């Protein structure tokens, strides 16, 4: 899978060189590249922002550097075949909310480009232009506002890439985690059986696999009911 990220702070993405994603890049499973938007400017100050038409607070990202970045990264050819067509994700608190299902969907794609805005956002024509290069989506990672889309893109890249076959050694660990079946994960314990007078639930030491599975499912339902009742109604 190829993933590109366009940002004025490309250094943020160095975090993706660590751990399992770093290994997946070294193994050639994930081909990731961060691009500095300022490389697509032509003035001395490498300007990427300007004041908004119609007035208002703050600065907007100007369209020209984005257009050049998309041309360079996506080229002229855009395949129309649904699978091969790139997805261009604009990180935005005004977008659809990213869920585990979104991660699964995007993990099937061959090429994803993250456009990470800063300031008060990006000139809307950039979004329209991007639609001529691929499938455009505006995605938020939650109902709060970050200073820019970089952290949001990193969170999405990690959630997507770990679902790509070969990135996580033990694929079984993906099956029993939170959100994989619409419920939160059950609590887990390791040795020792008693630690600072706190005991591991007896059922987990019983060797009775059916009882363990039942207990774990009950824990999932109870935890979800208490912490995220909204998930039970979806
Ligand atoms: N940029 C700023 N806030 C964001 C959010 N919540 N999700 C995605 N991108 C953002």
Please count the helical segments: 7
Return Rg in Å.
22 Å
In the predicted model, the low-confidence regions spanning at least 5 consecutive residues are: none
Morphology: elongated
Helix content range of the residues, please?
25-40%
What distinguishing features does this structure have?
two-stranded antiparallel ribbon, 7 helices, 9 strands, 29% helix, elongated
What features would you describe in this structure?
The protein is 29% helix and 18% strand. It is elongated and about 70 Å long. It has helices at 19-26, 63-74, 100-106, 124-130, 150-161, 209-227, 229-232, and strands spanning 2-7, 31-36, 49-50, 60-61, 87-97, 111-116, 135-140, 194-195, 198-199. The chain is α/β, with parallel strands linked by helices and 234 residues long. Helix 1 (19-26) links the parallel strand 1 (2-7) and strand 2. It has a 5-stranded parallel β-sheet with strand order 2-1-6-5-7. A two-stranded antiparallel sheet has the order 3-4. Bound molecules: adenine. Adenine binds next to strand 5.
What's this, in brief?
With 234 residues, this protein is α/β, with parallel strands linked by helices. The chain is built from seven helices and nine strands, in the order E-H-E-E-E-H-E-H-E-H-E-H-E-E-H-H.
Topology:
Elements: E1 2-7, H1 19-26, E2 31-36, E3 49-50, E4 60-61, H2 63-74, E5 87-97, H3 100-106, E6 111-116, H4 124-130, E7 135-140, H5 150-161, E8 194-195, E9 198-199, H6 209-227, H7 229-232
Parallel strand pairs: 1-2, 1-6, 5-6, 5-7
Antiparallel strand pairs: 3-4, 8-9
The protein binds adenine.
């Amino acid at each position: 899978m190829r993933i590109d990220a366009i940002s004025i702070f490309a250094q943020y993405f160095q975090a993706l060189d660590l751990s399992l994603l770093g290994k997946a890049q070294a193994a050639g499973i994930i081909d990731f590249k961060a691009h500095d938007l300022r490389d697509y400017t032509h003035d001395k100050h490498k300007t990427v922002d300007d004041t908004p038409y119609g007035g208002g607070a703050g600065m907007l990202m100007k369209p020209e550097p984005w257009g050049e970045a998309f041309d360079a990264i996506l080229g002229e050819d855009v395949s129309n075949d649904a699978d091969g067509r790139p997805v261009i994700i604009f990180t935005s608190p005004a977008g659809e909310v990213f869920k585990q299902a979104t991660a699964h969907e995007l993990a099937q794609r061959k090429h994803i480009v993250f456009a990470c805005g800063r300031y008060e956002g990006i000139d809307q024509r950039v979004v329209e232009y991007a639609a001529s290069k691929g499938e455009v989506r505006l995605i938020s990672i939650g109902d709060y506002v970050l200073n820019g889309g970089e952290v949001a893109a990193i969170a999405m890249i990690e959630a997507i890439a770990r679902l790509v076959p070969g990135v996580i050694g033990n694929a079984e660990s993906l099956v029993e985690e939170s959100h994989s079946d619409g419920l939160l994960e059950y609590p887990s314990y390791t040795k020792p059986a008693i630690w600072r007078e706190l005991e591991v639930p007896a059922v987990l030491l019983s060797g009775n696999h059916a009882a363990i599975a039942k207990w774990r499912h009950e824990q999932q339902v109870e935890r979800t009911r208490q912490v995220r009742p909204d998930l039970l109604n979806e």
